[in-house]
Design brief:
The protein has 99 residues and is mainly α. The protein has one domain. It has a two-stranded antiparallel sheet with strand order 1-2. Strand 1 and strand 2 form a beta hairpin. The longest helix is centred in the last third of the chain and has 10 residues. It starts with 5 loop residues before the first helix and ends with a helix.
């Protein structure tokens, strides 16, 4: 069974061809290829909490430091954490891929 990416779960419409692409732009989680395959997702689709420029609570986040606290309370993050269990990558490990 395919695992959901954040844009599918959140239905934000910020993927290529999405309903909010023109209005809000394409989400950096959708385009961030350095995290492709992490937790079984496309690009950063299952590691969005480590990527700046994602949409949290209706606002585009500017940096990891600003979005991190909200992300750990997000229903999508909690779903990924539940699905991955002990195999979930630490955020510090994800950030190493983004350097």
């Amino acid at each position: 069974m395919a695992k959901l990416n954040c844009w599918e779960f959140m239905q934000c419409g910020r993927e290529y061809g999405g309903c909010k692409e023109d209005e809000k732009g394409v989400c950096s989680a959708f385009t961030e290829t350095r995290l492709n395959g992490v937790h079984g997702g496309k690009n950063a689709g299952r590691a969005c909490w480590a990527v700046a420029g994602t949409l949290c609570y209706g606002k585009t986040q500017g940096s990891f430091a600003l979005l991190n606290n909200n992300c750990f309370e997000c229903s999508f993050y909690m779903m990924v954490k539940s699905e991955e269990g002990f195999n979930i990558k630490k955020t510090s490990e994800l950030l190493q891929h983004l350097r």
